[in-house]
């Protein structure tokens, strides 16, 4: 009987987590699809030409509005790099596209509370700053530039025509982007939610408490635990293989299990160094540069998690894990989640219909 009740709990938790984040996902992907349709890439590259603070903040801004899963973010970051953006700016763009994005904020808010949203965004900015400093100190920028020269400009086709916000074709394009993002990422999200649901129910808290040096007490997180958790967080992410939005349910489960506030953040940032991502970097930049990039990103994540932990703990803003008790969550009730889901399921259906029209139009011999 025990087994059956645990399976039931697992399925309930998985369904509940998915229900909690559904509207957030649809809204985030819809905004992202619209941005891809209406903001020309050429503009982006022109303003990301060096690694100055201004260039990096613009890269961060463009990354944040062209959100996507980590794999798509890596591809877009490479495409702006091949079009002439500075490598540090291209990586800042990638960090922002996975960690400063709207849908991640919505999903974090719905599962983990506003403190995580604030910390995630403040930390994302810090992550870019630390990464840029490390790139200045350690990264062979010239080697990246040689990679770019070798890969003769096979960057995306020139986006001459950017549709107006009021054109139906523009929105068809946005809807097509929405469906494309969704089709690329739904597996990641599903895996994240399923693994998280299973972890909450099956992995005993004692395991996490041992891994994260947590006494299981609510009162305080020691300095040692903060440091260890910031170092271990991204490594747990490396083996859990999930993209940034799919990471949030797992982060909630880990936070439940005793990882510190900063450790949970470092874990969420860790989606940029999961093994499939490192293989993608290797494909793009070669083994040596991919390794350097992986190490730089890892150090930046650990430093960021630790610093944010310190700041939030001293400020008294860090939430306690009881605030994010996934195990005892009431997922299904007539609350704002219910109404938002109804609205956005309708929005998603509308976008789906529009995207079907877009593919119909594309096949009618519209050759640019």
How would you sum up this structure in a few lines?
This protein has 368 residues and is mainly α. It contains 16 helices and no strands.
Write the layout of secondary structure elements.
Blueprint: H1 2-38, H2 41-46, H3 53-65, H4 70-82, H5 87-99, H6 102-112, H7 114-138, H8 141-150, H9 168-202, H10 205-211, H11 223-240, H12 244-257, H13 261-269, H14 275-285, H15 287-315, H16 336-362
Structural summary, described in words:
This protein has 16 helices and no strands. By secondary structure, the protein is an all-alpha fold. The longest helix is centred in the first third of the chain and has 37 residues, at 2-38. Residues 364-368 have low confidence and may be disordered.
Sum up the structure in keywords.
single chain; 368 residues; mainly alpha; 76% helix; globular
Cα(first) to Cα(last) distance is: 63 Å
Number of DSSP helical runs: 16
Structural class: mainly alpha
Task: Give the overall silhouette.
Answer: globular
Order of helices and strands: HHHHHHHHHHHHHHHH
